[in-house]
Amino acid sequence: MDTSKLSKFYRKTLHEKIESLYKAGVITEAEQTLLLEGRLDLPADTGDNMIENYLGNFSLPFGAAMNFVINGQEKVIPMAIEEPSVVAAASFAAKLAGSAGGFETTVTKRDMIGQVTLKGIIDYDGAERAIMNSKQAILDRANEAHPSIVKRGGGARDLEVRQLHDESQVNLPSFLSVHVHVDTQEAMGANIINTMMEGIAPYIEELTGGTALLRILSNYATESLATARCTIPAHTLKTGHFSGEDVRDRIIEATQVATIDPYRAVTHNKGIMNGVDAVVTATGNDWRAVEASVHAFASRSGQYRSLTQWEKNDAGDLVGRLTLPLPIGTVGGAISIHPAAKLAHQMLGHPNAMELSGILATVGLAQNLAAVRALVTDGIQKGHMGLHARSLAISAGAKGPEVQHVADQLKKAPHMNLEAARTILNSLN
Ligand code: NDP
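^ thats the input. predicted complex w/ NDP below
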């Protein structure tokens, strides 16, 4: 990738931006044409085959975050998101991290979990023993239920049994849950695992005497963890009257607040998900699965807490880390169908699922750095209001060059709201 073609990307016109992505080698000539002709939308006949009662498409802005260096490789990050400032904030934080070598990621494995949950068990320990004694036979049957994933090098790998006894003390019955760990290769694996769980359930019923109540994957992807790290020299954080060391310490303290206080943690983590969801959506993945998984992980200590950790190292640098459970894939679902999702995978250089997980954790970490840095210094509104002014101008009916004109005047107005935008627009006409 020739990133020199992408310098001052945000200052280019839409046409120039698209052209520079092609010249930098991020997209192909055909994709350049697709973008220039505004043909990223899902074709109607495809949409009609994807959901029931299809009426049309609901579009989101599709953009690119710049400056990312991940494991030594430069990346342009596709993001699909309606919220102003997210793309700019990610690019800003990536630049900060990039000046110190960028981000490092670790993804050691990518297994998904399937659950067969049984009711009506009489002897829980006996049922658990019966399952563990037949572990290999159960794994074999799971693989027989979906042989193509075995041919692709994946398949059911391991199994564990969990007795689910009521700890909430509201007098609920007990259940038994069999967890099968499945290597789903490049797929997120919902359909693979659901087929496997339905395939093994009768055998498990036979072994235990129980009745299978649920046979489905768990979206809690604790066997698919991705970690991103970065180290930021304190002096690069200096802004306004805050020294770099001040900003570093305030970021660490703000994260401590989000570790103690769930009310803050929810907003802190929402900021992380601004970035993660934008890339999950752009790459055609199931964002509900990722959201559910990540927030359960944030509560794994028994309290909902910050997903990121920010600390100071011996050299006084700010060191950040984010680990996320990521039920995602690079094939299946909408990924190979949606034109924008195909483009997003091309922009990322067609990462495999492990690499994509690392990219997602990196974007989450960058987003968190930018948001918390802004919060503990200038406040978040300064960055937000510029684009918010443009959205208000468009809502008021401004078109073409009027948008910037109304937005500029709105920023100076005593109240930035729709009424003020309309008044400014009327004064132009
Ligand atoms: P798909 O079933 O759409 O795609 C997976 C299939 O792709 C595999 O079974 C395999 O089929 C094929 N494939 C091709 N290349 C590879 C490769 N390299 N590695 C692995 N598989 C490959 O998707 P998923 O099973 O991943 O399910 C995801 C979809 O399920 C999403 O649309 C999601 O929204 C939906 N879903 C999600 C649920 C949830 O709880 N999160 C529940 C139900 C559905 P083959 O080998 O036969 O060619």
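The mean pLDDT is 95.
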